[in-house]
Design goal:
The chain is built from one helix and seven strands, in the order αβββββββ. With 105 residues, the chain is mainly beta.
């Protein structure tokens, strides 16, 4: 920002202002690998005595999200505001806003 505004050098907030885009990919599973039949995330059991029903749902174990955010310093702390969309089992989830306050990045 200091390149575009001459007064940015006096403002700690404008001096450190950053815009970022990000992506995140992850998975969780039990067993040897995410697609094994032993993966407990692929089954749902409902027990109502004397009957137990187990349903195989074979969910996609890989999740990801995409988003963008702003970061800067405010009163000596790093502040980050992020907006992201998650994708779970091929379904795009509602946009989520996260505001975080840190000592450093």
């Amino acid at each position: 920002v200091p390149v575009f505004f001459s007064g940015a050098g006096r403002s700690d907030f404008l001096k450190h202002l950053q815009a970022v885009a990000f992506a995140d990919v992850g998975a969780a599973w039990t067993g040897l690998h995410p697609y094994t039949d032993e993966n407990s995330f692929n089954f749902v059991s409902v027990q109502s005595n004397p009957i137990t029903v187990t349903v195989s749902n074979n969910r996609e174990p890989v999740l990801y999200d995409l988003g963008f955010g702003l970061r800067s310093r405010l009163l000596g702390y790093w502040v980050a505001a992020d907006w992201a969309y998650g994708v779970d089992d091929g379904i795009t989830l509602p946009r989520r806003f996260t505001l975080s306050l840190n000592f450093d990045f």
